[in-house]
Design a protein that fits this description.
Strand content: over 45%
Largest sheet: 20 strands, antiparallel, barrel
Radius of gyration: 27 Å
Structural class: mainly beta
Distance between the termini: 38 Å
Helix content: under 10%
Shape: globular
Number of strands: 28
Length: 587
């Protein structure tokens, strides 16, 4: 297999020389010993080796605890190098297990194209001949676990041969070519969707999908493609196209990301052309529609500046262009305020500071899967200046911040909080515009070994001087499952959620994982100056229950969400039972 494409860094030539000398030595040893002993040529290493008691063949990828096993019985010498990278690919179904040895499962194994070994090696951030570093091993495992086409991943040292180590990479494929369907009903309106997607086309690791959705606002048919490793490199590219009943959408990107915490640089290009009709809501009702045309382009670069232990600092810079145009539609009521056309054109500078500590947990937001949770801080800030001299409609200062930190990460609980902010300051009118800030707190309790867990979230959002095309809404997908999506609006929003989650170790047909929850929610959106925010401008509450269905073999990154919610407040215009059926990546 071809070696993984790596960035040329100090030591690369030494590594290549080392690999060449090692290969020459092995070849010489094999050729000389093969003449005297037929079996000697099968010896993989001309010296003593110590194998770990933890080997990939014995790991049950259906059990998160097995995947957390590490090789504590191996003593790895200082300065050891990675002599071999062994790829172990498991099929979707293990037909050596009597419960999985049937005609259907054998057929699916036969029809599925295993993920290419080259596609797996392209995800790794180490290569044969590299100096052994434990953090590169664990980060590669985290990267593999994020891939939609893999059900599970495990990476570890399985053999030590003098100053060389063998690293084994164990993965299991998932059946990825699958039709999808969804439906929901809220506020007396139905939304349906259907599609066909494959995030691992022919085992290449590339993603292709088509979809069709029909909702109260529009009908849309789309296609998308994504390649996370162009020609085996760490470059990424993708595009999406949507044909809508009220417009169209085109988008594309090409980037070399910070694919690893150790990557020195990044660069990215992207573009968007989007036309759609948009509604203005007052009192939970769409009073008028208007057309929104958006054209955007962006280029950015990044460079790692400093590193001290787990702390890393990156410098970011770029240029963005975004033009928004709005027009009235015929036969629609006239809006009291039509959004003003606006163009932002600005260079920007920023930084990204992060603490790279991670904790492996299970049953946090996924069903019986290992999750990598950051036990540290991430802080990203961007500051730009949009000038008329660059084609902008006004001179503005553009500021965006995203901050997240973990307060507690133990075997039994996890707590984190975050703060995000976005908006601009208009220099011609000396005022902020579309300024929004959100403060949130998440708490999980229960531990990986328990089948029952508690989860609660509290969030508060404040907005200032929103333009007519920007609204702060609550209900449905924006919080409070018992109410329509636009039931209240305002410039303040508060939401509290409490869930009792169930993660039974039930694995019917070795195919599905089932979870459940009971939930209570309360929230409100309002205007701080007392303006009308909806049919019921008080605190809204609902209760409900839900089922989560996820497959351990088919499209494992997506869970089926079925929620039944009962509103406890509101007026007579809403249904007393709200049913939502949709897909989601989190519990």
């Amino acid at each position: 297999m071809p070696p993984t494409t790596m960035i040329e860094q100090p030591g690369t030539k030494v590594r290549r020389t080392y690999c060449a000398l090692k290969a020459f030595g092995y070849a010489l040893f094999a050729s000389t010993t093969a003449l005297s002993s037929p079996e000697a040529g099968a010896q993989p290493y001309p010296g003593e080796c110590i194998s770990s008691e933890v080997q990939p063949e014995a790991i049950d990828l259906d059990q998160p605890r097995d995947q957390l096993q590490r090789q504590g019985d191996l003593l790895i010498p200082e300065g050891a190098r990675i002599g071999w990278v062994r790829i172990v690919r498991r099929p979707i179904f293990d037909i050596s297990d009597p419960e999985q040895d049937n005609v259907l499962y054998r057929a699916l194994n036969t029809l599925n194209t295993p993920t290419w070994e080259s596609a797996l090696r392209a995800q790794l951030i180490f290569d044969e001949g590299d100096l052994y570093q434990p953090d590169l091993i664990s980060e590669s495992e985290r990267i593999l676990r994020q891939r939609e086409y893999l059900a599970a991943a495990w990476v570890g040292v399985t053999r030590v041969c003098e100053n060389d180590v063998e690293v084994s990479v164990l993965v299991r494929d998932t059946w990825t070519l699958l039709p999808s369907a969804g439906a929901s009903r809220a506020g007396g309106e139905n939304t349906t969707s259907a599609g066909l997607s494959d995030p691992n086309v022919f085992g290449s690791g590339k993603s292709l999908g088509v979809s069709h959705a029909r909702g109260p606002d529009r009908t849309e048919t789309g296609v998308n493609f994504d390649d996370p490793n162009v020609m085996g490199s760490h470059w990424r590219t993708g595009f999406a196209y949507a044909n809508r009943s009220d417009g169209h959408g085109y988008s594309g990107y090409l980037e070399h990301p910070f694919y690893s915490e150790r990557t020195l640089w990044r660069v990215g290009l992207s573009g968007v052309d989007d036309v759609r009709e948009q509604s203005r809501f007052v009192g939970a009702k769409a009073i008028a529609d208007y057309r929104r045309n958006q054209q955007a382009a962006s280029i950015d670069v990044g460079r790692r500046l400093a590193e001290r232990g787990v702390r890393k600092l990156r410098l970011l810079a770029g240029y963005r262009y975004e033009a928004l145009e709005f027009e009235r539609l015929p036969d629609e009521p006239a809006l009291d305020v039509l959004p003003d056309n606006r163009t932002l054109s600005y260079p920007w500078l920023g930084f990204d500071y992060r603490e790279n500590r991670f904790v492996e947990m299970a049953n946090l937001t996924r069903l019986q899967r290992v999750e990598d949770v950051r036990d540290g801080m991430v802080w990203r800030t961007e500051l730009g200046y949009s000038s008329r001299g660059l084609g902008a409609t006004e001179d503005r200062i553009v500021l965006a911040t995203d901050f997240r930190d973990a307060l507690l990460a133990t075997d039994a609980s996890y707590t984190s909080y975050g703060l995000s902010q976005s908006g601009t300051y208009r220099l011609d009118e000396h005022r902020f515009e579309n300024l929004q800030g959100t403060l949130s707190l998440d708490y999980f309790y229960g531990g990986a070994v328990r089948s029952k867990r508690w989860y609660t979230n509290l969030s508060f959002t404040a907005a200032h001087n929103l333009t007519a095309d920007q609204q702060l809404l609550i209900g449905g997908d924006t919080g409070l499952r018992g109410y329509p999506s636009e039931y209240q609006q305002g410039n303040r929003r508060a939401i509290w959620t409490l869930e009792r989650r169930y993660f039974p170790d039930w694995h019917p047909f070795k195919l599905f994982r089932v979870g459940g929850l009971l939930f209570v929610e309360a929230g409100r959106a309002w205007f701080h100056d007392g303006r009308n925010s909806g049919p019921d401008d008080g605190i809204l509450r609902d209760v409900g229950l839900g089922i989560r269905l996820g497959s351990s073999r088919i499209e494992v990154q997506t869970m089926l969400h079925l929620d039944v919610a009962f509103p406890l407040d509101g007026d007579d215009s809403i249904d007393q039972v709200q049913v939502l059926l949709r897909g989601g990546s989190r519990f």
